Amino acid sequence: MTETFQFKLLATDGKARRGEVSMPRGTIRTPAFMPVGTVGTVKAMYLDQVRELGADIILGNTYHLMLRPGAERVARLGGLHNFIRWDRPILTDSGGFQVMSLSSLRKLNEQGVTFKSHVDGALYHMSPERSIEIQGLLDSDIQMQLDECVALPAEPNEIERAMEMSLRWAERCKAAFGDQPGKAMFGIVQGGDIPKLRERSALALRDLDLKGYAVGGLAVGEPQEVMLDMLDVTCPALPAEKPRYLMGVGTPDDILKSVAHGIDMFDCVMPTRSGRHGLAFTRYGRINLRNARHAEDTRPLDEQSTCPATRDYSRAYLHHLIRSNESLGGMLLSWNNLAYYQELMAGIRKAIEEGRYADFMAETQENWKRGDL
Ligand SMILES: CNc1nc2c(CC[C@H]3O[C@H](OC)[C@H](OC)[C@@H](OC)[C@@H]3OC)c3nc(N)[nH]c(=O)c3cc2[nH]1
Question: Residue 266: which of 57, 87, 49 has the closest Cα?
Fold first, then answer.
C-alpha cells in the first residue's frame, strides 16, 4: 500500500510481465483479472467471496451508476467503496463504450456524447470532463479517459477519426483529472486493426505521461489473431514501466496469449455472465451444465479444487439448478468460474516468476483439451 500510485516490474519471461500496482487502497498483483462489478455488485457474488478468491481490484461501471443511483447520490452516500462495502481499489470505465453499446446514442461530436438513458429515456450529455467528474464522485481509484471505441470491421478513415478524437479527449481528461497522487487516470489506445494508427495512438498517449495505459477497441468482434497482432504493435510503443490493461478480455485462452504479448490487467464479463447461463470453466476445459448428459452425473466439477462450488456439488445438482433457472445455479457457477479465473492468474504469475511461462501456457492449453473427464 502506498500514498501514491506506483507500478513495479518484478520479473519478466519473454514479453510476459509479473508486476505489482501499489495504491493507497491496496496492492494489485499483475497479471491481474478484475471481476466486473457493473452496477456496484459482482453479480451473484458476495464481495468478501470475490476477495477470498484472490481479486485485488474490481470494476465499477460509470454509465450504469450515473443513471442509477446517480453519481451525486453515490457521493452523498460516501462514495462507491462505502456503498458496496469494498475497501480495495476499484477501476471504472469512462462510459463511452457503454453509451455506444447500450443506449440510444443521439449525438457524438467533439464536445462528447449525448444519449438517452436505457433506464428511463432521459437525455444525458457526457463530455470528457463530465466523465472524469462522475468517476471522481464515485471515488474511483483508476479512472478511464472518455474515448470512442469503433466496432470492427470498420472503414480506415472512420477508425482514424475516432482514434484522433480519442487522443484529444485524453488530453482533456488528463487536464480534468489534475493531480491526484493516490489515484490514476489511464489513457486508452485506439486505432482498430490498423497497425500504423495503433502505433500513432500509443506514442501520442505515451507523450501525455499517464500513469497507465489501456488497449481499447479490441475484443469487439475481431478474430483472436487480429487482437494479438494489434498487441504486437501497441505494447512495444507503450512505456515498459507503466501498467497495460486490455479492456474486455477475455476467455482463459485470450488471457494466456495476451500475457505472452505483454498485457498486465484484464476484465471480462465471461466468468460471471456465462456462469449464470450454465457454463463452467475448469482445468480440463468448459462444461455446459445445461446439457442433459450431466443429469445423473454425481461427480463435482473438480474434486481437487479448494473452491466449495467446484468441489462439493454434483454436476447433476448443478444441471438441475440451471435447468430450473434457480438463483443458486448462477451463484455456484459464478463462484466456480471466478475461482478458476483467479487460480489461472495465480498460476500465470508464479510461472513468470519462475521463468517457465511458455511451459505453463502449453500445459494449461493441453489440459483444456482433456475435456469433461
Ligand atoms: C468486451 N469487449 C470489450 N469491452 C470493451 C470496453 C468496455 C469494458 C467494460 O465492459 C463492460 O461494459 C460494457 C463491463 O460492464 C459489464 C465494464 O465493467 C464495468 C467494462 O469496463 C471496463 C471498452 N471500454 C472503453 N472505454 N474503450 C474501449 O475501447 C473498450 C473496448 C472493449 N472491448
Answer: 57
Phi-psi region of 32 (alpha: psi -120 to 50; beta: other; left: phi over 0): beta
With cut-offs at 50, 70 and 90, classify the pLDDT of residue 16.
Answer: very high
Statement: residue 185 has pLDDT above 90? yes
pLDDT (tens digit per residue) in 35-59:
999 899 999 999 999 999 999 999 9
Tell me the one-letter amino acid at 306: T
Inter-residue contact 280 to 336 (CB < 8 Å): yes
| Residue whose CA is at the smallest distance from ligand 1 atom 24 | 97
Could you read off the pLDDT of 57-92 as tens digits, one per residue? 999 999 999 999 999 999 999 999 999 999 999 999
**Cell numbers 433506464: residue:** 119
What whole-number distance in Å separates Cα of residue 355 and Cα of residue 352? 5
List the residue whose alpha carbon is closest to atom 3 of ligand 1. 248
**Annotated catalytic sites, by residue?**
93, 267
Binding-site residues, ligand 1, Cβ < 6 A: 36, 38, 59-61, 93-94, 96-98, 101, 144, 147, 149, 188, 216-220, 247-248, 267, 269
Q: Which three cell numbers stand for residue 266?
A: 484484464
Separation in Å, CA 371 to CA 68, 283, 284, 367: 42, 9, 5, 8
The answer, yes or no, to whether ipTM is higher than 0.90 is: yes
At position 159, the amino acid (one-letter code) is I
Which of 272, 266, 226 has the alpha carbon at shortest distance from 248? 266
- DSSP per residue, 33-76: EE-B-TTSS-TT--HHHHHHTT-S-EEEEHHHHHHTT-HHHHHH
